[in-house]
């Protein structure tokens, strides 16, 4: 998994004071026993052994973890997980692993009812944690980035925000406005991609009465409306080159000449822009004026995508469930499925799909939101170049447990019994399909049905 990071250029002016600190490999503990969290577990001398009662897990112990559950090693490049013969097994990147057989871990590790993500540097999470401010969940990468944004605003710089769709560029622009000297003024957000080219000049710079047919009154433009505050131009590169030239002049002279006006009007504007494309490449392609780039393109911050901020994901899901349906619980399988997907639409897509899963759980009167409630296409790449395997493909079947291991199985609690019965009903009694959905071998499931007298429709295999 890609690791957390944010950039601000030029770094010599507003650099990260932690950039030179030594990297600390370890695990991010993101979910345990039904609760989302974000806890750093650093490796000591490249190793970490986990199990129920491990001091590193603190008070949030997982009763479904064995006393000696699994060992994690980092060889300087890759993480390796070895299950130590645990009762409930270890799952790495969606696949159960045999005991005593090291398996490389890249994205998600499941032990009992806990989820961990391998991370090349848990130091930022150790130092900063994850905080919730003004309704936003902010991991260490976003906290560091917002500190840089605050510095830029207070120094009076313009700011360009680069980031993928759905990463929260407007939220960063608002933080830029609120941290600057014009925070008492208006914040005007303009989606330049949504402005028809024929009226872009009129909407941005305004028009005087009689400037064109139907202009019955003076109409202020976005720049006049933002006077004394901040103008946020999202996807500024979508503006026509002629409009870009007029925008550059307005920013340099601090004067705006509305359509049909004889005299310009002075304005005081703090400018912030954003795009999901590289500005320098657009200048080279002739789609962005070079002089405008030098006016608005520095300094630049790059928002890390959601896949580089896993410490925020489980907490985002938990908050969404609590806001939409407080009576529902959050199941391990749902969080794990979300962690395993790339989410090209980032936080925006995650929250939309989470609401869809919550609605599905409510319609089915389920006690918790589970992976089965998530759309198969949610969080996956569009088109043929998918960044993750098709979610409709069944996961590999885990190895069959020995009878000795099965005989040591703990009593089945009510939640587990309900989960198995619901999975059986969902798959029409098909033991193989139900076992795949539950992440266990079909023989293990049959033994559970026999041992605990679980009622199930006839096997359709």
Automatic annotation (TrEMBL):
Highest taxon above the source species: Bacteria
Keywords: ATP-binding, Nucleotide-binding
Ranges of biased composition (kind: Basic and acidic residues): 400-424
Gene Ontology MF terms in the entry: ATP binding; sequence-specific DNA binding
TM stretches of this protein: none
GO biological process, one term: regulation of DNA-templated transcription
Name the record gives this protein: Two-component system regulatory protein
FHA domain segment(s): 48-97
Compositionally biased intervals (Low complexity): 376-387
One Pfam family this sequence matches: HTH_8
Compositional bias ranges of the Pro residues kind: 388-399
Residues annotated as domain Sigma-54 factor interaction: 138-350
The UniProt record lists the keyword Nucleotide-binding: yes
Presence of the UniProt keyword Cell cycle in the record: no
InterPro entries xref list: FHA_dom, Homeodomain-like_sf, HTH_Fis, P-loop_NTPase, Sigma_54_int, Sigma_54_int_dom_ATP-bd_2, SMAD_FHA_dom_sf
Stretch list, region Disordered: 376-433
